[in-house]
Each structure stands twice: as C-alpha cells, then as structure tokens.
C-alpha cells in the first residue's frame, strides 16, 4: 500500500513538473529585429558612422522575446522601449535604417516580404 502511494505521488509530481516546464523560458530568435512603418528590419553588426546619421524617425514602443508571426510597428526583440531609430544620409529607408545602442549606431536592413501587423 505504501509503495503504491509513493508511486502515485511521484507520478503526480512528475506530471505537474512537466506541464509547467518551458513557460517562462526566453524564446530563441534567428536574428535581432526592429520594425518601422510596417517593415521588418534585421539588425546587423555593421555600424553606421555618427556623421551619416540624419534625423530620428521613430522610437521602439514594444519589446518582447516571444516569437510571433505578427509583429507590431515600432517593435524589437532585442532593444528596449525607448530605443531610437534613425534615417541614414543618402540611403532610402527601404534599404536600411540605423538603431542607436549605447551611442553606437547599427545598420538594420529591411527584409523583403516581411511586414508588421496593419495599424
């Protein structure tokens, strides 16, 4: 009887532990992204010289590490709310933009065929 009770208790604990695992883990993205004007931009490790940075064009409004096929505008999976986005001199925003991170500007290249949720 005692052996059966221990077996049932162990089984219940195992089931509860398995059912709760993974809910609080960070999601793994293939790359860092920001969104702007319904476009999705892949952030690269390439830097943009400060002298090439023009006007501020937006600020990240939502940060999340949860993967989704529906991304809101002004979103990032890496950069926190408040991170600034900039236009680069002599470059169309359809090509790339700059993302400011600790006084360094990183190139974010627009990804063809990927868009954010409609506003």
Automatic annotation (TrEMBL):
Keywords: Signal. The keyword Signal applies. Residues 1-22 form the signal peptide. It comes from the Bacteria. This is Lipoprotein. It comes from Paenibacillus amylolyticus.
